[in-house]
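Pipeline run #58 for the internal structure catalog. This entry was flagged by the ingest filter as a single-chain record with no existing model, so it goes straight to prediction. Upstream metadata was stripped on purpose; only the residue string is passed forward. Reviewer on rotation: M.T. Logging verbosity set to normal.
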Amino acid sequence: AAQLDEARAPVEPRKWGSCALVGNSGLLRLAEFGGSINSHDTVLRVNQAPTFGYSRRVGTKVTHRIFNRLWTRAYYSNQSQKKNKAMEQYPLEANMTILITRATLKEYGQLAAQLAETRADVLAARLSSRAVSMAQPILEKYRERLCRSGYGPYKGLNVPSSGWVAANMMMQLCTSVSVYGFGVEGMSKVSRGLPTGLETDGLDQVTSRNITYHYFVGMGARKEGNDVHSFDNEEKAFEALGNEGYLTFCRWRQGDTEHNWRCGCQDVTGITCLPRVIPATEDPNIDCYPGTDCAIDEARIRLQKLKEQAAFDPKAAEAMAKLGEGVAAVSGGKRGRRSSRDEEVQREMAHLQELEASSRFDEDLMQRMSETERARKEQEEEINREQIERLKLLNEQRELMQRQQKMLEMSRIPSPPPS
């Protein structure tokens, strides 16, 4: 009941602060918007899109996710509420809110109940059907205008995507909205290495070697969009809203390096949005930041968790108990033919020796990884300091040029005629 009451509670406009809406387009892998996305007060992501492994491209901050009916079902399982594999497999960040669209009240209730049981820090809120119905006419009317102006035809129907629904909602709730990762439906052709036929900043040059329809792989990533949506039409609508100042539409621009990391940045100096330097020892095209969310970091995190759990491992405790019983039996004079119990003790002793050897190896590995990471971070910090100084100098030069321009314009103003 509490979940339903909160979901129906009224929301005051403009209370979300600066907002970033992050879609799933593969074009995100061509830019470095991570810092700019993180600079917003509210960051809403669509469905199951991950951040781990892609922080360089999409940032790490998550305050909200919007689920369609398919992903509402995927996150809810028919298994025991205490063991939901979907919630372990897909992202579910701490203290965030899930906005559910198009799911039935029953499906919403199932997910809300499961979250209350297993993840009380996550709130599920079901959006009214009006959120969808109010977003649809805008797309229909704009598509008609595009067709009358000679654009199109566009693939797909007029059913608004979850991202379009979220954008319409956020324009009412946020002081500003920056949109990332939307467009292009032609990406389904890009994923196969085919020309798109769309004029989108040289996108035709992109091939399947470095881009996919979604920016991530696995986790239910698709090779092409759902035909009930028209992502080409939505992209044109986003572009029009951006041109009119209703939002900032951030998409990759070929050759515009600064735009491809600074678009939508909420820091006027741009310093906090600067991309981190990728060490020369790493692949320059990686999507993660070494030391934060790359595969080796995930392995290190899992290794540390395993080491912490080892002290409470029931199997290890059981093996030690069996070993104690065996030693007591031997010391009590039972030395004849080796019984099955003695053989079991020997196996447990061998197992414990393997655990000890593995533990020593893990400690050495962790120490080497720590030393390597420390050296890499020191190198990164030094390079980042140089970049920040260059950016400060650039900002100072821009301010100086603006002042000089104003002085020049003032000098051109004719003096008033003598009275």
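catalog note: Residues 1-9, 78-82, 185-209, 326-342 have pLDDT under 50 and may be disordered.
catalog note: The first strand starts at residue 18 and ends at 22.
status: ready for reviewer M.T.
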